[in-house]
Specification:
This protein is mainly alpha-helical. Helices cover about 80% and strands about 0% of the residues.
Length: about 150
């Protein structure tokens, strides 16, 4: 799974570079620096907004992949901690040294930290989705103002 996430991140990076290169070309055309002759400005603006939307979607995808990778690491750590705790809890209390009890407590604390970090990922992802929705609405509003979209009611 981690290798798949890495592969997808690499593909996203390549796609992002392609989008950026296309964006530069459209911007140059809009500024008449090097242009696609005869392409109306309205069409160039539509292309530019389309590229912005594609890039935003790609950045969001990369963020979600990074969150998935972080979650995988935390799940792995959680699994190891859980196994270690079960092993230690299987030992009779009367046979545990003070050091054993301290280690158990530290393992439990670390497991709680892992759970809190996983909760933080979920909260962050939700916050990102809300921010993305707002960004999408801002872009849509700009496109409406430029006459690149028609309002749908």
């Amino acid at each position: 799974m981690a290798q798949e996430i890495q592969r997808q991140l690499q593909e996203a990076e390549v796609k992002q570079r392609e989008l950026e290169a296309r964006g530069v070309e459209v911007e140059k055309s809009l500024r008449n620096e090097k242009g696609e002759e005869g392409v109306p400005e309205q069409d160039l603006m539509a292309q530019w907004f389309s590229l912005v939307n594609e890039k935003n979607a790609l950045v969001r995808f990369e963020s979600e992949l990074m969150a998935q990778a972080w979650e995988l690491e935390l799940e792995d750590r959680h699994s190891h901690l859980e196994q270690e705790i079960r092993t230690r809890l299987a030992v009779d209390e009367s046979k545990k040294s003070d050091e054993d009890k301290k280690v158990e407590a530290l393992l439990l604390e670390e497991m709680l930290e892992v759970v809190e970090q996983r909760d933080a990922i979920v909260a962050w992802l939700e916050e990102e989705r809300l921010k993305e929705r707002s960004e999408d609405q801002d872009i849509e509003s700009m496109m409406l103002q430029k006459g690149l979209l028609t309002a749908v009611h």
